Amino acid sequence: QTAAEMSPELKNSLSHRAMALKKLVAEMEAAN
Question: For 1-32, where are the alpha helices, taking DSSP H only?
Fold first, then answer.
């Protein structure tokens, strides 16, 4: 299933999770 075939809601939740993960990684790197 490609991203284009996904529902907007699913794509939104996935991108939100990815952004939260990137933010977490950035904060962990800043803390070290």
Answer: 8-31
For the chain, how far is it from start to end, CA to CA, in angstroms? 38
* C-beta separation of 24 from 17 below 8 A: no
For 25-31, the CB contacts below 8 A with 24+ separation are none
Its domain, for residue 24, covers: 1-32
Whole-prediction pTM: 0.60
pLDDT score recorded for residue 6: 76
d(CA 15, CA 12): 5
Specify the number of domains making up the chain.
Answer: 1
